[in-house]
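Researcher: Go.
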Amino acid sequence: MQLVEKDLTVNELAEKYEMTLQGVSKHLGVLVKSGLVSQSKEGRKKTCRVNYRQLDRIVELIEKYRKFWEARLDNLEDYFDNRNKGE
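Model: Structure:
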């Protein structure tokens, strides 16, 4: 993702990804709506920037679910270990 390195305009993104301006704008709209990218407008130029706070929230959520599933799978492993010992 080129936006990690520096802020870019919609036109610069379209050039880097060999996409139409309309295609880039559509993808950016989804990212803006999700809060992962923010846009500022100066005249006719829209500059895009990564929203790192939102990425931190996503990492926290993934970590929460990782811990949950790790505990569940550990319990399942213990269940099968105990079941096999009883045979």
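Model: The mean pLDDT is 89.
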